[in-house]
Amino acid sequence: MADRVIPTRTNLMVLIGLLALTLATTLIARVDLGAWHLPVALAIAAAKTLLITLYFMHLRWSPGLLGLMALGAVLWLAILLGGSMDDYATRVWLLPLGR
Amino acid sequence: MNGQGLGFPLFPPRASALADRVDALFFFLLALTGIVTLIVATLVIVFAVRYRQRPGRVIAPSQTAGSTLLELAWTIVPGLLFVVPFVWGARLYVDAAVPPPNALTITAIGKQWMWKFQHQGGQREIDSLHVPLGRPVRLLLTSEDVIHSLYIPAFRMKQDVLPGRYTTVWFQADRAGDFHLFCSEFCGTAHSRMGGQVTVMQPEAYERWLALGASESLASRGAKLFQQLGCNTCHRGDSLQRAPGLVGLYGRPVQLTDGRIVTADEDYLRESIVEPASKIVLGWQPIMPSFKGRVTDDELLQLVAYIRSLEPPAPEPFAPEGQPLFPAQRRQGG
Amino acid sequence: MIVATVALERPHEETYLSVGTTARSWLLTTDHKRIGILYMVSITLMFLVGGVAATFMRITLLSPGGGVVAMETYNKLFTIHGVIMVWFFLIPSIPSVLGNFVLPMMLGARDVAFPRLNLASWYIFVAGSLFLLWTVVTGGVDTGWTFYTPYSTQYATSHVVSTTLGVFIVGFSSILTGLNFIVTTHRMRAPGLTWFRLPLFVWSLYATSLILVLATPVLGITLILVTLERWLGIGIFDPALGGDPLLFQHLFWFYSHPAVYIMILPGMGVISELIPTFSRKRLFGYTFVAGASIAIAVLGFLVWGHHMFTAGMSTHAALVFSMLSYLVAIPSAIKVFNWTATLYRGAVSFETPMLYAIGFIGLFTTGGMTGLFLASLAVDVHVTDTYFVIAHFHYIMVGGMVTAYMGGLHYWWPKISGRMYPENLGRLAAMTIFLGFNLTFFPQYILGYLGMPRRYAGYPPEFHVLNVLSTAGASILAVGYALPLAYLLWSLRYGERASANPWGGTTLEWTTSSPPPEHNFAHTPIVTHGPYDYVRGPQGDQRG
Amino acid sequence: MADIRVAYRHAPAPQFDDLVQQREAAALGMWVFLVTEVMLFGGLFTVYTVYRWLHHPAFVEGSRHMALVAGAVNTAVLIASSFTMAQAVQRAQRGLRRGLLGFLASTALLGVVFLGLKAYEYWSHYAEGLVPGALWTYAGQHSGPLQAFFFLYFAMTGLHAVHLTVGIGLVTGLIVLARRRRFTAAYHTPVEVIGLYWHLIDVIWVFLFPLFYLIG
């Protein structure tokens, strides 16, 4: 949270970037990407999140500790999602069939 | 070791091949952990007594800060030692997960505070399970209400039983006699009463017992139900017009509309009856109505037994690996 | 020789206790020391409620035949025992009582970073406790402290909602305490107090706070989903709607396994303070023990699946969780080896805190070792949900955490109350607890491998003798716990006056008077060297 | 025009040595709180991910019932409110009280607009009988998992709306304090800290929008 003052121009650029990405993700959803649908939507959402955290939340000019906290949140969310999905995605392996 | 002299057991009975292998792993772990605990305990006591505070020894003379070598040693050595029980335990677990092909399937339904078993020949029993000696037995488990857990200590076997889903477990009893059967997942008021007896019988005695209680087999009851509910109006033996054929379906890979390939196990058959719209076979339309609420768990098991019994008449050439047996060559539309 | 910088004992010095004696001064305090004492009172009361439930359970298990009434009551007893002990005693005790009191002083700070938030945490804890006491009074809850669905959401007829809401509320008390400790440790260290000069109790509290902050919210949302499912009649874990009861277990154990590290890590921190102090020797391998705390906090999040090996999880996931569970055992082993190495060529004295510390090493090692049985898939299938698991986690929770809490309580009692406890009674209580504990829980290992399932009000006759032994042990344990309650209260008035540093400790809290002034230090200490340095004496001095 | 009339020297709280330490502590405290918020929503995102894997067709069906336009507009509204909040923080840093008040008011207003649109969407689902539980009258395919989808929709966007309402309350509180000249260029920590909270609410909606409205 360094008290670095961010010029309005930068904030406006970030705003336009975010609105553009929103428009993009909405339009892309129309195109049938099949299996690629979710990854693209999540990538765009991640890009928007980066814009918001780095610029609007001043993470770019804050002490490294705060960035570490943000990274920690993402990592622990990944642990929760990964661990649970590892169970559901692999339930079909080693099916106990019988006659 | 069974503590006969004490008047009460200190070790559980062993009645299955798996039990011996699990006990071997248990004793290995007991030895491994026992030795390390003993070493730590003696060191603590020896150091505490030998280096106790006494006149002239108010502060420790040597204030050693530590030794990285020692730290690495007691990090890596336990790491390597732990690989043994992990691999050993994992091997036994995987062996216990996949039943041998010739296993005898018995269905078990956990219901608040009783176990209902049903043999292929239609014999039904509550809170007691008769099984033959020396033959692998595969239990197909489900629950009508909450989560229970079928636990037979003598076989070192335990498997949770979930509503809305099938779980399976198998064992091969190798000692005749009666053994405890418990429910080991808390399921309500009479959780501690929900158990019974597993009776392992000589094969001939088992056959005689089966004959005694024989009634209409699961598969034939399933066939009757198949007609009653009108399943045969769409799933017909002769035409694949409105619905995929069921002959020889059990255990085969099936391709779905969204491209996934799933194996037609009991869970797939059950879900296709209760929630048909969630998995549609490639080339067919989601026109099947849901039978949820119209079919009880017992009847579902009978239908699944019936579908499983539909063996293809002539020995079918097995489809090459990964190839779905039901390619979408059928005409679109119903 | 130790440069004893004992602050001269001015007779009527203003201490944090004498500053205010009205109820208002206690109930509206923002002094971390007073809030620690408020917590001590409330968790002791909750420990008594949980203990009474345990007593009735052991009485019921004296006889094999559990009648219907006994079964219903027994189910409610073990649930209340579980919920109250886990969330209202084990999790808050060391961080909120000893941590609140000692952490700011160990850092050389005047208070925690957010004192009002600290007081709010205590009020939230009290609010949660009232929900639980309301549940106990109006008929109890019988789902087990694990609230497994669909029993807890669709079939239980007892007071589930008031319990889940009570635990949801007390969850925020832990989150706020964790948040407070993280910010205090990062931002409020005394000059010269670098990370690797921090006492290990601070390291373990920091690691615990990381878990508190990362895991507790998931429990919160899971309990809210259970509450919604009971209120609105529709739900996410309902198999009829295509829901999966196993998903509840994933979310629950994602919190509840790190929660067991929330309970034990502060205990390890206390032991890392006691062993060096009472053997007058630097802790062996300081950096490795500190690193082990952080490793436990991180690895603790990867292993929750080992509670679900027989629950219907995929075989692949079971293999992954089993391997990771063996990894998480290693940092705990490192700590035990380092404590043992610290005793080597020390100058060991056997005051009460040291007896608890040595008892901790023995009991915690036994508990931890049996964890290796449970991590191995094949053995776990046989012993999970049996009394083997009960013995395992009681060895770690009661043999480990409660023993460490007792040790810490006696160690810092002079600093908290300005009085010394009676030494011989203290030693007697420690040995009684050690004896009673082993007699209560070791037979349960045997019962577990024999196959006696947990949460059973009645059992087959062949388990009778071992259960009677266990109940006998429980009565000795109860006496063991009653003793400190009595003589500690007695010592408040009649105890011998304590000096600023009765044990010759080197951490900063021993450089100020006992009991300390309201802002802990006359002026902020300047830290010159690391802790446990018995040649150079206390870390900081009053010259700063 | 220096708008900064030194209202009153803001002394750091007793436990802090100076204002810099206090601000850094507040910022770290809020970021740790944001981590807990991410994990709180994380539990629901896990349930969403698992059920999307188990019942993909039902989720596609459910997504078709979403008002895509309302969702997209709402996303733009919330992004705009993030912009105005960032501007408010900038004005506070420069000590310009009038600008601070203006941007705070527009942030709160945009938040209310979002809630309004969301209420409209909830009402339209209610009209279609898509509210899970007793009010569920939809009789189409996947009736079971579809109820789960809508339960998740209402739970996650509802929890988000609750957080947004709290956010609006906090911003209103800031407006009151700002009018009383409580913030100066030297001391405006509450504005920065509540700004962080507001931006997180926006980040959560950034993920909720594609996951519910744009399932292919």
What structural category arises from helix and sheet content of chain A?
mainly alpha
Helix content of chain B: 25-40%
The helix/strand series of chain A, from N terminus to C terminus, equals HHH
H/E series of chain B: HHEEEEEEEEEEHHEEHH
Oligomer: heterotetramer
Which shape of chain A, going by the Cα principal axes? Answer: flat
Helix amount of chain A, in percent?
55-70%
The fraction of residues assigned to DSSP E strands of chain B is 15-25%
CATH H-level homologous superfamily name of the domain at 104-213 in chain B: Cupredoxins -  blue copper proteins
Overall outline of chain B: elongated
| Main CATH class of the domain at 104-213 in chain B | Mainly Beta
Number of domains of chain A: 1
Give average pLDDT of chain B, whole number.
Answer: 87
Strand order of the largest sheet of chain B: 3-2-1-5-8
Instruction: Tell me the total number of β-strands of chain A.
Output: 0
Throw out a few tags for this protein.
heterotetramer; A: mainly alpha; 3 helices; 70% helix; C: 544 residues; mainly alpha; Cytochrome C Oxidase, Chain A; two-stranded antiparallel sheet; disordered N terminus
Please give a quick description of this structure.
Chain B has 334 residues and is an alpha+beta fold.
Descriptive report:
The complex is a heterotetramer of chains A (99), B (334), C (544) and D (216). Chain A has 99 residues and is an all-alpha fold. Chain A contains three helices and no strands. Chain A has one domain (8-89). In chain A, helix 1 runs antiparallel to helix 2. Chain A starts with 7 loop residues before the first helix and ends in a 10-residue tail after the last helix. By secondary structure, chain B is an alpha+beta fold. Among the domains of chain B are: 104-213, Immunoglobulin-like (Sandwich); 218-308, Orthogonal Bundle (Cytochrome Bc1 Complex, Chain D, domain 2), CATH 1.10.760. Chain B has six helices and twelve strands. In chain B, helix 1 packs antiparallel against helix 2. The termini of chain B are far apart. The model of chain B is unreliable at 327-334 (pLDDT under 50). Helices cover 67% and strands 1% of the residues of chain C. Chain C is built from 15 helices and two strands. In chain C, helix 2 (32-60) packs antiparallel against helix 3 and helix 14 (423-450) packs antiparallel against helix 15 (464-494). Chain D is an all-alpha fold and 216 residues long. Helix content of chain D is 76%, strand content 0%. Chain D is built from six helices and no strands. In chain D, helix 1 (19-54) runs antiparallel to helix 5 and helix 3 packs antiparallel against helix 6. Chains in contact: A-B, A-C, A-D, B-C, B-D, C-D. At the B-C interface, helix 1, helix 2, strand 7 and strand 9 of B face helix 3, helix 5, helix 8, helix 9 and helix 10 of C.
